[in-house]
Write a structure and sequence with these properties.
heterotrimer; A mainly alpha (358); B alpha/beta (441); C mainly alpha (309); A: 358 residues; mainly alpha; ABC transporter involved in vitamin B12 uptake, BtuC; two-stranded antiparallel sheet; 4 strands; globular; C: 309 residues
Chain lengths: 358, 441, 309
């Protein structure tokens, strides 16, 4: 009754091809954006910014990049942490070695370096498929980790191997308070999400999806697998590299290679699987789920324990967190193997018919 | 029907949470505890957290800090930097504001070093963290009290030199360094490299990628190169694996020396007699089952059933490290109360002044129960370390025994290194050195 | 020369230990098409069970014989692993039939987290000891030929022998028993096997139990070597290149892959490592596998991947 396309006629190709053709969708997304930009900075406290919102935004960006590779192009990659690391360290080197390098340029250049590395490690995908490719990309993960630990030039010859950045500024506006960091990350995320959505709706996105679904058939009808797969790796690594730069610069401030370890790669893969492969919306759902759930469990379990007067030790909370996390992942995969995005679109479908049952 | 159930449950939860919040308004000095009770360092970090909590309970039994009770809340980091940062953000404002953080992880220390100046909460990083943070005029909020990695490296080399008969006897010898491939491990290298240049011994650097499950290749290289000594800078389960591999390749344990994070009971007790002869340099305290403070904890805390961990653990090396860490936290607050008001709850920045003006004489330490365990600690605006004493203990198959006198790290060498490294940090961050006026605040 | 021999022998034996873990992966993939990322967690869980049972059972039953304790603990741990296998099949696998490979992979990752937390809740997170009588001291061979002799780790030698025996037993099981034949039939074609009356669910429980048994043996050996602690589950990351190199569906591939990776890792770390600053063995196995896959995309002994359009 409320959510339907009746009466919405398009009179130009432009209007027909918009990202959100249904007016209700458009209103919805503007409302969400307005809430995120105007209401959240007022309502949220510092802890919410630093511990939940900023990691959520940055990891959603990284999940976006990974979803392009895994969800849209079908190349399983377990080396995402490595590309984030390349982005972060490259951005660091650019900003430290070149006086007066603007932050945004450093991040983009970091992304560009990640692209180069991504394409390099994407070359095996031309020959290797499926699970074999997943393990081959782990080579990228471990090799890049080792490189940043061993080659001290990358860490500006710091004796401990840890790097740090501070005093970030964006065209003169400083980015040091949680509010500013949040808005900066939100801005970058919105731009990249919009770019990604248009990419996957366009010619290149269709090529990726063809390769994902039936790569031999796609090659037969004239889609060049080399071009499609390597561009997928390139675009994905760029976005992931920028996300890595943001993670190091904006969220952590000081990092070592362990911040981009294999656990990060698995975490991102979880995000896109839970959120929904092949869906831009899904990246956000997945990122929210994976970022918020551990913290929620960590705080809710002792509170639950207090309610029933049972003292749960810190270690037991950590273990239970792991168990519930694992169980919930399995549960979601059983209930909706296509992810939360599918649940969302099913809900929207039902909304179209509401209040009628079918 | 269901809605009312839900509503009443929510109301009950809300009242409960608000009551706990109301209770928290009472006068307490809040000491957050970042723990590593799970993950790769669990066997070693758990006794530390237990010791920390137990000493804080003892302080309360003894009447608090001039009447102000301590409150400890733990947050699990599993030795992961991002979880440590999240725990920091969560706890820093609770219960009236955190007094001091002890991250027990070099990675988390590096991340928090960037955040604490803005949040005005001091960091105590006894025996770890940034070695250059001993320079208080650059690192206003970091306190590597009673030692850092360069003290460890220097004293362990002093011990080896003494055993050989002098620094000149080390010329031409080879020393292998097995270290955790991370900022924690690498922090040891500057002092060892410096000493190797000064005295002409060769270094064989052997990094072990975390978590160090398989170290056969490393110890095969040790066997091939035959270093005269091996120094270990490892932490957590990596240490036990290293010693087991050393046993398996036949490298004599008498020639192995760990730094203070690489020589505690969890690392050695499963190996038992095969690890006999392994030594480690300790930051003043070792396993102190006979000390007065341990007796007090057993009598006044564990006997009442308030002990945090198992009773058998009380007095172990890492347990004592937690006790010493807690003691330093509390004494800094006590010193701050002298200036800012006895019997009042101290803010983070007031406690910081306390840590910077710590003057723990031997008499004070003995009164607290640390006779024979610790030597005097005295910090200042420029020196945030306070003391550079260490001694070496050796595993005899079942327990540790002291095998060296008190050693003191050579500040003539270390201070310039600290200053130079702090200068680098200051110039990178465009910080000014603190002036005299700032030191008084 | 002697030292090179030592490195190679050490590598071969490390490789056998990796193969032990890799066998679990191969078994499950062969029979159910699931890449079981939880194998590492299963190794840790089984090792924890064995270590703690061997500690608790003497207290419960009061006997002193170490051999009896170990045997009982092993049996108890095996029962636990069968229970875990049954639960996994019931709660996870049967509900995810016909899903894509990556979904099943993620489900096994979820199981990993669950087993990690569950194992530590049941058994604790300190380091525990497994003592099945494996010798710890080194053995020096050929001292007359080479100065200082060639070091051979006795414990590793026993472990390699046990691994070899296990492989032979498994091969015999697959070839000569009816259950083994049923397993091979299921691996070949699920639907055909079902149509001739092979109960898939029971087969999967059996496969996961056998994989659990392999995990238990691997856990006992690794646990005896390293002590049972958290990083034992990370041994799976060391075994992954072995699985891929040998081919996901080949048991002899797991052994040969293990030997190659073991030797490659150790030789590269000892001879190449010093020039590159050390620590290269963590990625050497993976990079080696990457290059082999470029030549043979299905691994050395894996089934050729045939795409039908």
């Amino acid at each position: 009754m409320l959510y339907r396309e009746n009466g919405q006629f398009k009179t130009s190709y432009g209007a027909d091809q918009q990202v959100f053709p249904i007016t209700q969708d458009r209103i919805g997304i503007w409302l969400v954006l307005a809430f995120a930009v105007f209401a959240v900075p007022v309502l949220a406290d510092e802890y919410l910014f630093r511990a939940i919102l900023i990691p959520f935004l940055i990891l959603a960006l990284a999940a976006l990049g990974l979803n392009i590779l895994v969800g849209y192009c079908g190349q399983i990659s377990l080396g995402t942490g490595a590309f984030m690391a390349v982005g972060a360290y490259a951005a660091y080197n650019f900003s430290v070695r070149i006086e007066g390098m603007p932050l945004i340029l450093a991040l983009l250049l970091g992304g560009a370096c990640a692209t180069v590395v991504g394409v390099l490690f994407g070359i095996p995908s031309l020959r290797i498929k499926g699970l074999y490719l997943a393990v081959a990309t782990l080579a990228a993960q471990f090799f890049v980790d080792w490189t940043f630990l061993r080659i001290s030039w990358f860490t500006n010859n710091s004796p401990s191997g840890s790097v740090n950045v501070s005093n970030l500024s964006f065209f003169g506006i400083s980015i040091n308070t949680p509010h500013e960091k949040y808005l900066f990350c939100l801005g970058i995320l919105i731009v990249f999400a919009w770019l990604a959505k248009n990419l996957v709706r366009g010619h290149i996105g269709r090529e990726w999806m063809a390769i994902r679904d039936m790569d031999v058939a796609a090659a037969v009808i004239g889609i060049r697998p080399v071009y499609a797969k390597l561009t997928a790796f390139a675009v994905s690594s760029f976005i992931v590299g920028v996300a890595g730069g943001l993670w190091g610069f904006v969220h952590l401030g000081s990092w070592e290679p362990a911040a981009f370890s294999i656990d990060r790669s698995f975490q991102l893969l979880f995000m896109i699987i839970i959120g929904g492969l092949g869906s831009i919306m899904g990246c956000f759902f997945g990122a929210a789920f994976i970022v918020i759930l551990p913290i929620f469990l960590n705080r809710a379990l002792p509170a639950l324990g207090d309610l029933v007067n049972v003292e749960i030790s810190t270690a037991a909370v950590a273990h239970t967190e792991l168990m519930v996390f694992g169980a919930l992942i399995v549960f979601f995969l059983i209930v909706e193997p296509h992810g939360l995005a599918r649940l969302w679109s099913t809900a929207k479908e039902k909304m179209r018919l509401w209040p009628f049952p079918h | 029907m269901k809605f009312t159930h839900l509503a009443s449950a929510l109301v009950a939860a809300a009242t409960l949470m608000s009551t706990t919040a109301a209770l928290a308004q009472a006068k307490v000095q809040f000491f957050p505890s970042l723990t590593g009770r799970t993950g790769p360092v669990a066997p070693n970090a758990t006794p530390f957290a237990n010791g920390y909590a137990d000493y804080m309970k003892l302080v309360n039994v003894r009447g608090g800090i001039n009447g102000v009770m301590t409150l400890v809340e733990e947050c699990e980091t599993a030795y992961a930097t991002d979880r440590g940062v999240e725990c920091y953000e969560r706890l820093k404002g609770k219960h009236g504001g955190a007094t001091v953080f002890q991250p027990l992880s070099t990675g988390i220390t590096f991340a928090l070093t960037e955040k604490v100046p803005g949040d005005k909460i001091p960091l105590i990083t006894s025996g770890y963290g940034r070695s250059d943070s001993a320079d208080g005029s650059v690192f206003k909020w970091n306190f590597p009290l009673i030692g850092h990695y360069w003290v460890a490296g220097d004293t362990v080399l002093q011990h080896i030199a003494k055993k050989e008969g002098g620094w000149d006897k080390l010329k031409g010898k080879k020393i292998g360094v097995v270290y955790h491939d991370s900022p924690f491990g690498k922090e040891l290298l500057p002092i060892i490299t410096e000493r190797s240049k000064m005295h002409g011994f060769e270094l064989q650097l052997l990094p072990v990628p975390a978590p160090g499950v398989e170290q056969k290749a490393i110890w095969l290289q040790v066997r091939q190169q035959r270093p005269d000594f091996v120094i270990m800078q490892t932490w957590g389960v990596m240490t036990a694996t290293a010693i087991k591999e050393a046993v398996a390749t036949g490298y004599p344990r008498e020639k192995m020396f760990g730094t203070w994070w690489s020589g505690a009971e969890p690392d050695l007790k499963d190996i038992g007699a095969a690890a006999k002869g392994y030594s480690a340099v300790m930051m003043q305290h070792g396993a102190e089952p006979g000390s007065t403070v341990v007796k007090d904890i057993l009598d006044k805390v564990h006997a009442k059933g308030e002990g945090t961990g198992p009773k058998e653990e009380v007095g172990n090396v890492l347990y004592m490290r937690g006790v010493v860490g807690a003691m330093l936290s509390v004494e800094g607050v006590r010193a701050a109360q002298e200036r800012f008001g006895k019997g009042k709850v101290m803010l983070g920045e007031q406690a910081r002044w306390g840590y910077e003006n710590l003057n723990l004489t031997q008499a004070k330490l003995d009164a607290l129960g640390f006779k024979g365990v610790m030597r005097p600690v005295s910090t200042s605006c420029t020196d945030h370390m306070g003391s550079a004493w260490a001694r070496v203990h050796t595993w005899d198959g079942a327990k540790f025994t002291w095998t060296s006198d008190w050693l003191q790290a050579d500040e003539q060498i270390i201070k310039p290194m600290v200053k130079a490294s702090a200068e680098r940090y200051a110039s990178e961050k465009k910080l000014q050195r603190r002036d005299g006026a700032d030191c008084q605040s | 020369m002697g030292f090179f021999l030592e490195t190679v022998i050490g590598g071969l034996m490390s490789g056998m230990l990796y193969s032990l873990v890799a066998l679990g992966f191969v078994l499950i993939f062969k029979a159910s098409g699931v890449f079981n990322f939880a194998q590492g967690a299963m190794v840790l869980f089984a090792a924890l069970a064995m270590a703690r049972f061997s500690e608790w059972l003497p207290q419960l039953l009061g006997n002193d014989s170490k051999v009896l304790d170990n045997v009982l603990a092993f049996a108890a741990a095996m029962v636990l692993m069968v229970a875990v296998a049954w639960l996994i099949e019931r709660l996870v696998l049967s509900k995810l039939v016909n899903q894509e490979g990556i979904t099943l992979l993620m489900a096994t990752l979820g199981i990993t987290y669950f087993l990690d937390g569950f194992g530590q809740t049941l058994f604790g997170s300190a380091i525990y000891k497994i003592d099945v009588g494996l010798p710890k001291d080194p053995m020096f061979l050929l001292q007359s030929v080479f100065q200082d002799g060639v070091l051979v780790n006795k414990e590793d030698l026993y472990a390699a022998a046990i691994a070899a025996a296990l492989v032979i037993a498994l091969s015999l099981f697959f070839q000569y028993t009816s259950t083994g034949r049923a397993l091979r039939a299921v691996a070949d074609d699920h639907q055909a096997a079902q149509s001739i009356g092979i109960p898939l669910n029971r087969i999967w429980v059996i496969v996961w139990s056998v994989a659990g048994f392999v995990a238990l043996v691997a856990g006992v050996i690794w646990g005896s070597k390293l002590g049972v602690q958290f990083s034992l589950s990370l041994v799976a990351l060391k075994a992954l290149p072995v699985v891929i190199l040998g081919g996901l569906t080949s048991v002899p591939g797991a052994i040969i892959g293990g030997l190659i990776i073991g030797v490659g890792e150790k030789v590269s770390e000892v001879y190449l490592g010093p020039f590159m600053g050390g620590g290269i063995e963590i990625w050497f196995g993976y990079v080696l596998v990457l290059f082999v896959l470029l030549v043979r995309p299905q691994g050395l002994f894996g089934e050729k991947i045939i795409d039908r359009v």
